[in-house]
Queue: 4 jobs
Job 1
Amino acid sequence: MNSNQIELIYTALAECIARVGEPKAPLLLATLAFDLLIRQTDADTAIEHILQAERLTHV
Amino acid sequence: MESRDGEAAITLAEPRQVPVVIAGGGPVGLTLAALLAHHGVPCLVLEADASWCEGSRAICLSRRSQEIFGWVGADRALTAKGLSWVGGRSYFRGTEVLHFEMPSEPAERFAPMVNIQQYYVEQYAHAAALRAGGVAVRWSARVCAVRPRTSGVEVEFQTADGHTHRVWTDWLVACDGGRSTVREQLGLAFEGVQYEGRYVIVDIEQDTRRAVERLAWFDPPSNPGSTILMHRQPDNIWRIDYQVASRDDPSEAVRPENVLPRVQAHLDMIGETAPWKPLWISIYNAKCLTLQSYRQGRILFAGDAAHLVPIFGVRGLNSGLDDAGNLAWKLALVLEGHAGDALLDSYSSERVRATRENIAFGAKSTEFMAPPHHGFALMRDAALRLALVAPGVRSLINPRQTSPVEYANSPLNQPDDRGFAGGARPGMPAPEATLLTAQGSGHLTSLFGTCFVVLYFSSNATRPTQWHERSTAARGGAAALRWVRVAAGGAPDDHSVVDELGQAWQRYNAKEGTLYLIRPDGYVMGRWRGAASAPKDFDAVLRCALKDNSHE
């Protein structure tokens, strides 16, 4: 994915979070993350993404 | 800074009529004055302040802006004083998340970006204007009324002694900034958006040996929750910008007792321990605003009077200087009778288009640097973390620095020759190349800025006869047409440069016989593969394009 596409997605998701509002943002993001994770080739890869995100929240 | 005392003797006492009045003697107004003087157009600059500005203000000059300064011989002072960027670094909390390099090589004419305080830019532009002659700058002269007429504009201004003066001008150019009196007098309003996020901007003096980089910290331990930018300036000055919380009162935020501890905490964090003192404090919020048109009859708008763009990406002053570079030659041609005033409509359409692009980029940068809502704030926090493990995300952190805008669909663009597989289309900035000239090693862009130029790529020293006689047509000033042969080898002379490194032939996608017509502001106006497709008479092309460009 090129930088323009990444920026497009970044903006679209930011605007979507704003549309649903702060209280519903966790639900939106969990739904989105779960949807993307079950499209991974295997569970190990999906679990690795989850653990990486968890590590990054502690930065 | 040097004194400007010596100027008094050449300041016009009370001119009744001048071809051009420039409202505003800031960097754009003074640069426009220098460019007009370079083209032989006298002008009067009216500046409300008593002298050059205080504080660093616009601090980064792009390569394009340095080229424009080169047209009036002000580039040497600028590059001698300015500090060239070598790159940039961004940090999230304590961790580096982006590092980019902007190497400038000795063979390059200008560095990609130079840090310099705005008052030096004003000083050098002012000096260039005075050197060229025909420019009068009236300090402490505030424009108070503007009366447009069919054949000109009556401008009323007040001087420091309280007297009111009137001057009649053929053309008034408003370069009087974001709070433009001229704009207000005409009842024109900006359109666009303003962002809530505010940045305090501070100049401090401190010795440092740190590299000249664009430095950014997101949520640093020194100022949790804030974003901080730092730029090294000449004279041991740091320019520090930091974001303040939306709940903070702007007038409180700029009080020294609130500013200095935050600066000290940050200097401590990054290990800059030398003694320091504050010089200037101000506050800023991002704006994406523009007029719909930069021409209202005989009144033209440039710089902040025409548009306001966010500072992130340094598009403010740089776009204002591009306005001046676009407008000066067109105004000169109109005043000299070489062009109809419709040419000035192309100034507006080209530069409004540039502003729209600058605003689009500036808005993107602002959404990252000063997130306008919770969605962008959350996404930025995520992107900064993800940048540690996903390099593709780092482009979001890049400040998207200014670059010259393409004037696609400009009425001046000639139909493109389909024979090109690359190079620069009509409407694009003419590419740079290192060359051998009769004066030694030089650069292609040094040929631009004065008049129209035909670049003729050929190894044959003799120009085809079909263009030989026409080239001597009596056109002077900015309307002149200069032929320059770009040879692949051999020796340079007064009419030929040698592309020893092959850069020009490659960047212009040239073959034997290729021709490029370059505008006085260094933009490509037309290009042709060779004699078969090229115009028989380039003077006729210019006459046609300049007299009437409203047909497209």
Note: The two ends of chain B are 48 Å apart (CA to CA).
Job 2
Amino acid sequence: MEPLEDWVVDGNAIGGMLLEVFGTEMTAATGTCGNCGATGPVAELAVYRPDLGTVVRCRHCDNVLMVLVQMHGVTCVDTRGLASLS
Amino acid sequence: MSPISRGFHRRHGEEAAAGRVPPGQYVTHDFPVLSAGPTPHTPLANWTFAIEGAREPKSWTWQEFQALPAETVTVDIHCVTRWSKLDTTWTGVSVDVLLGAVSYDTPYVLAFCDGGYTTNLPVDDLTGGKAWVAYNYDGGSLAPEHGGPARLLVPHLYFWKSAKWVRGLRLRDVDAPGFWEMYGYHMYGDPWREQRYAGD
Amino acid sequence: MAGTAVRGRLTWQTATVSSVVDETAKVRTLSLEVPDWAGHWAGQHLDVRLTADDGYRAERSYSIATAPGEPVGITVERLDDGEVSPYLTEDVRPGDQIEILGPIGGYFVWDPVDGGPLLLLAGGSGVVPLRAILRHRVREESPVPVRLLYSSRTWADVIYRTELEQRTQGVAVTYTLTRAQPAGWTSYGRRVDQQMLTEVAWLATQAPLAYVCGPTSFVESVAAGLVALGYPPDRVKTERFGATGS
């Protein structure tokens, strides 16, 4: 795995967005990657933030776990890449 | 009602001459580089550009690609997040040259890239002098953070269609959504009609 | 603690800036009056939203610099090419209103019940949530011993310097200044590396709890270094700020 670039953050940075979308604190929740099975706190996931949206990836295999897009004032979240989130 | 933050304003925001930029855009002199995933670093010795889904498969190595006729163009680019950058100069191979090397009768393309990014376009929007696979920007090699070694360049559509780290075009019968299109961005993306999100 | 973060309001609320303190030339702490503040845990952050009169909005996250029970404060570092931080560090005056969402975070938090010994590792403005942890520890009269390793560019860039220089029982502070050191400097003068961690960190056999906060490259390198010292990964908590100087 290449070392992550400096502008990549982690799930802590989207705690507010996740709070708004899920209605509850999510950074301590456990996510399981649907591709490689890696498990860990949402706070430790790799978070990319191009202006178009927020892309949350597995730190081990780069699989896309969650994508959040804000459109017309609403935040939409897709969690298809996660096997589980609890 | 959100309170107005006294004295707060957008950092940059130059108005451009009327008609020069699409509605809702402002002009920037920056070139933001934030990506949806880690920057790929494919060695040029391993790099290929492929056309898939035509009557015969076709691909070029980096050396073969560099030997294709290239053009230098100066174009404006418009990002869906509202910044526009004027008079950007690129050198690359016209997609007309690339698709001209195969025979096909499908109307749509999915561009695919290192790192897994994809974006969909009609063939008509990639031909007729409207699109390139660019490997130089502003007189120098395209930097990895800007999509190098080569990226798609389709300036008449929102810039997310100008896929970074492009490795090929897959010709298709159906217009299936690529990465951002799957997450709600517009299937076509015409900045002049402000087609930012699905349903716009 | 098991992730039972304080349940703040899930909606934006208006906060009034009550006072500002310049910590360094580029760093300012803003104290906020928040009418419906439900309290917070040490280490949490809040999101700030600014709205311009043309409707343009910008949002950023800032760690809460104060301990539970103290008035809410955030410490902001001015980024030269920033859009929000120059406004918050230069333009904002007491009486101004900003919108906030929070408190946020149930992972990067510490309370005395979590135990220790504590190893706090700060890169630049990464010291902000760690200072909330230090203040909370004092207010709770916790006996948990702490070592803080704080990396800054120069002595002038050290945030909360006076407070950290006070000898606090059970807290050992080590500085490393990566760009320039004052005359007579006897502590470290380089980026945190494995050798420095070996010299400063608690032994893995002491079952420490580590909190690493700062720019992404700092956090990645330090967290890996602690794991190399034998720290179990789930005893190393990380918060990456992205690309800022340290």
Note: The CA atoms of residues 3 and 73 of chain A lie 35 Å apart.
Job 3
Amino acid sequence: MKNILVYCEIEDGSIIDVSLELLSKGKKLASDLQCQLEAVVIGSNLGGIEKQAFPYGVETLYLADHSKLYPFTTLPHASIVCKLIQEQNHQVVLFGATSVGRDLAPRVASFLKCGLTADCTSLVIGDYTEKGKEYKNLLYQIRPAFGGNIIATIVNPEMHPQMATVREGVMKKEIFSNTHVGKIQTLDVQQYVKEEDFVIQIIERHIEKSKINIKGAQIIVAGGYGVGSKENFKLLFDLAEVLGGEVGGSRAAVDAGYIVHERQIGQTGITVRPKLYIACGISGAVQHRAGMDQSSMIISINTDSKAPINQIADYAIIGDIATIVPKMIKYYKQNSK
Amino acid sequence: MKALKIIVLAKQVPDTRNVGKDAMKADGTVNRAALPAIFNPEDLNALEQALSIKDRVPGTTITILTMGPGRAAEIIREGMYRGADNGFLITDRRFAGSDTLATSYAISQAVKKIGQFDLIIAGRQAIDGDTAQVGPQAAEKLGINQVTYAEEILDINDKKITIKRRLERGIEIVAAAYPLLITVHSSAAPCRARNAKLLMKFKHARTASETQNATEDYIQMQSQRPYLNIEEWSVEDINADINWLGLTGSPTKVKAIENVVLQAKESKVLNESDFDIESLMKELIVNHTIG
């Protein structure tokens, strides 16, 4: 049977969120294609990691455990994934579109001479006809291109496996069953990696634990270039605090130094789906909209009535942030319980 | 230390970052033909890293390699105005329709033809395809190692190169041996501006196609100054198998393209007045959107 394989990325002993989201999606695709969901974890000290993977419905979990396999370097991980796919002949392979996934996946695709689509925003199963030949049950890999101005549906009819990378927050994380148990297959690392592949030396690594959880916030107050300065962002932090929400920013605000990269929302930042998104001084370029247009309610505050964001907003407040935000805080406090 | 041979992979792309009103058609879609063609931004970051190595390691040469239509020669000239030594344009109708696998095959064949190199430096991704795949795929085909998301070259010597990488929530410092392919992130230093002397020197640099209708004077000038010749290579020049190029050589096919149309919603327009803001806050509280 040709199954689905999800490459699960590890950080600090845990499978990261985007990999869990892909396991959830992989499980649904496996059901559509009537095949199984498999996963591969490559790292060090992986004892017990199956407890994180099995609840998502993984039937077979491949483990490659060796001290030199964490942190990630390209050649060893690529070698393991390539050999595994050659042995098991998966029909679909998914990776998170992270600095690891976007380094690893193209390397694997080049070696296997198969198709790879980056940063997919949607994956569905469908048919395809080309030159009179019909292909059934292919993976439609849907993604933005041209800076986000077009949406392309890509298919990979002949050269399998069909590979895709997906950004965090695009798919929903869903436990399949807390009691599900699959089987573990431990890979003999020496059979999969040559000693000379361990050639990159990692000298230093400073990864900060995420202090901010914007993805999960139900209320987000976001600022764009129109906020004007890092100091002016304080107003947004005040509003967020009062409403019990988080603060985000557009790429322009991050690039201008008004707010940290970790809070960037948009095509090259985080994708969010809050109950309420308040966009302050954000013009609403397509790259930003891609990260927030699924919010349940959108309020825009902008001095420009023609800003594109106003067209997707439920409420468009035309005016100055410095006037409006304090009033919002004042009237919220006065009227809430 | 010994001089290094660096190849910079660059691409000429439509400027998709600032799609202004002029490039938007009446139906809300982008008029791609109206977008100006530019040197891909992250490839400029890559060029700057190459130039900073050239500053530190005397004798280092930088070659720009690009695949595209004839007018892509423009970015080779642009690279030379900033300090690159020469460039190669691979251009052929049979490259059209290539996905990243076919493109990286063509690029790797061209690199093999260029010959010995120590480093290949490329931008992480192009602003039209946004895939970040060609760099790593070319490295795999050339059988060399890769370091992606590079932000700065910290140290360089005969044995290895030390690179700072910018990851999602932090940085990583790695050391790697040659030969190596590096992809550079936009967080790296911006590219230095054109140098006036280099601009004067290279402004007449042309590919063979561009000089087809040249004057006698120009042809004579070019024969006296060989550095004005930008090499132009076709499929045959790079010994490429056409079955691995174009649509035939591309595993991924585009099934459909949809323009992103700004879907206007019925929005309620408010102003700064106390009345409007207070009404809004009351409404949001009443429908339980906020606390």
Note: Helices of chain B lie at 41-56, 73-82, 100-114, 134-142, 196-202, 216-224, 274-286.
Job 4
Amino acid sequence: MVTEELYSLAERKNIGINFFRIRKKGLITKLNGNYEIGLSIEVLASQIQEKEALAEELAHCLTGTVYPISLVATALGRLNIIKCERLARQTASTLLVPLDKLKLLLPLPVYEIAEELNVSEKTVLTAIEYYQLKGLL
Amino acid sequence: MRLIELRKKKGKNQAEVAKFINVSQVAYSKYETGKSEPSYDILTKLADYFDVSVDYILGRDEMPTLKIPKEYKDLQVAFYDGIKDLKQEDIDELVKFMEYLKSKKK
């Protein structure tokens, strides 16, 4: 997906997007049952970073992987959060690196695939790993 | 133990911490250097003073205690890149973000 498609997806799902002064690249929360994404106006240094932060926060909405903030206080809670983060990251990578496009690009080295899809190499690798895990590659 | 790190972060000297936990500066200095171990009571006082858990002081817990306002304890969230380096600053910004959202909805 290109960045505009991610913004359209958010709009269709009634997910608010707000640019805000935060140290983290992005965060997501819920207000009155609606998801609200915050994207940093300070640390997002490139279009790729904006796209990846938006995709990851959207992935949290799509997979329902948000958690009560109080979970950070316990070891078990943090373990659950790590699982949530992994699922969101994998889902985000599938939004940014669709399987059909990846299959066409796979003869290329990872950095070229990343360049072609306008994402980071890390995201390409996450997507490849995920698709392989699911037996799709 | 993380006493030196916590004390410096709080901008205090050994004498000030020692006074708070009611021990001599020499005794406190020994806790920091590992030459002697504080009792559980003293550890609890130190945890209160530095606003972290006893486990965190002992280095068993990687995450410092974060102050979450009562009204936001059940708030559903997720942070980009997870919570590995989550700081109090992030919680404070989250609270500001919530206040911003609430004001926007009014």
Note: The longest strand of chain B covers residues 76-79.
